[in-house]
Amino acid sequence: MIGYTISKDKNLLQFDKIHKAIKTSYWGGYRTEQQTKTTIENTICFGVYNDAMEQVGFARVLTDQVVFAYVMDVIIFDGYQGKGLGKWLVAHILEDDSLKNVLTISLKTKDAHKLYEKYGFKSVGNSELWMAIDKTKLD
Q: What share of the chain is helix, strand, coil (3-state, %, to 5)?
């Protein structure tokens, strides 16, 4: 996307912005700074940056890179929403080498089902939150 970059380099992450965005989200209000740091340390992180390398978005993934991946904390920061950055970020994550061959990719969302459906995610069972792309072939 013109004017923006996505990077997995954790050295570029702007922790204060990430923590503030997650802390004010409907799903992460309980997280302490230490919990946010721990989640970043233990997952693959994707930062979205403008041309000035100011972070404007974030997402992270927990995966074994073969069988399962869990996409979490997909968020575009206030002031940058509505520009297509979230869609671009999701597409980028799904095309990343660490996920493109994973058999099952899951996530939870309360309000973005239509966004994720565009990328092949489907509701899991009767859950109002869980969605997944499942490419597993069982005999």
A: 25, 30, 45
Return d(Cα 109, Cα 84) in angstroms, integer.
18
Please state whether the predicted TM-score (pTM) of the whole model is above 0.85. Answer: yes
Where would I find the H helices in the chain?
Answer: 15-23, 33-41, 85-95, 113-117
- Looking at residue 37, what is its pLDDT? 98
- Longest distance between any two alpha carbons in the chain, whole Å: 51
Half-sphere exposure of 79 (CA within 13 A, CB side): 7
Write phi, then psi, for 22 (nearest 5 degrees): -70, -40
Could you state, in chain order, the average pLDDT of each consecutive group of 10 residues for the chain (139 residues)? 95 98 94 97 98 97 97 96 96 95 96 95 96 88
Residue 42 C-alpha from the chain's centroid: 14
Contacts of 113 (CB under 8 A, 6+ apart): 121, 123, 131
